[in-house]
Predict the structure.
Amino acid sequence: MKENISLSLKNTESFVAVEEVLAMAQQAVRHLDALNNGTGAGSDFLGWLSLPDDIQPQLDRIEKVAKHLRSISDLTVVIGIGGSYLGSKAVIEALSHTFPSLIKGKHHEIIFAGQNISEDYLSELIDVLDNRNYSLVMISKSGVTTEPAIAFRILRNHLEKKVGKPSAGDRIIAITDSRKGALRKLADVNGYETFSIPDNIGGRYSVLTPAGLLPIALSGIDIRMLVDGAKSMEPLTRNNRNAASNPSLLYAAVRNLIMRTGKTTEVIITYNPKLHWFAEWWKQLFGESEGKEGKGIYPASADFTTDLHSIGQYIQDGQRILFETVISVKNPGRKLVIPKEIDDSDQLNYLSGKRLSEVDHNAETGTILAHNDGNVPVITITVPELSAWYIGQLFYFFELACAVSGYILDVNPFDQPGVEAYKKNMFALNNKPGFEEAGKKLRERLK
Ligand code: PA5
């Protein structure tokens, strides 16, 4: 039997008592029941709970479309923002070669766009696309989000000019709502191949829908392993009412108890740069789900050991408002040993013969102890290795924990009302029809 990801609270024990964590996790079983029975806040958005099963009938078509795009192009621009790009970006970065465009051999490149409105970013992307044979995957659940819509308009025009409208139509896939939104209309009018994001799944919970799985399949990663990994967490989390052995309930409980001691920022720590974007996915999941009504734990991230030489100082010694969650990968995918040198002029012979992973693990252990000494509680999540299966486990574990944690905080973890504030101002300042009055008021304020 395969080992699972695991949670250790050893380095939180001197901050919150194990008994307290167990008691809160046990109380949180009612939140688990509310999720399973659809009786909690946001119960229209629980489709992700059974997604590992529900997505199965679509996997063949996702793989077929990915194969088709790979056969007619060597690069795909995936357009989307927030939950419509962070999940696939996280998996692709975690499981691909770190320098994909610099190594020999044919591989399908994925570039993301529509996650900003930067004129430089898109112009420089167009410099690249002028000379490349590419496809477009446009992802927007609402079908009306400004950032990806602008990128799609510009890149669609570029592609149509480059290969002609009919051929462009064959290279564009739209992933959106099954009925509503401008993107659905556009896709229907132009006859693009489409996939739907179910009504009952919000963006940040959508990585196992076609929104996440098509870009991941395009990059050559085994989406079935990813989904199976997520599925394997169901008995341990969703269907496990025994709080003491349910890692999602324990994690939700411990982070809330730590927050109540005044530590209101959680820093997710990774020791492998491949997990940088997984941390970005995690920040969106928890930030948008919990940060409302003046509540929530602020989600931050750091890449160690890199950031130990920058914000490491703050973590060790600054305001005592932080706790950490370390994602510790046990076995590296590659092997590299530090060589011995006769003259030892760089004084590193004490490390010779050691693998880099051993030195890195010692850095991790030493840092956890140092941060504990500096009054920073540390939660550890151990991942046996970086693979699609384990990333799938992490997704399901965190999604369930986030939903339960939101209920502990007494917020709806499935809405994001705060995101609308900047949009209204942006529409008003850009003279979007219907926002004229608001525009006038804002311009007054700017005088
Ligand atoms: O989690 C969410 O719901 C958001 O982050 C959305 O994913 C993001 O705003 C993009 O929305 P859409 O897919 O509708 O373009």
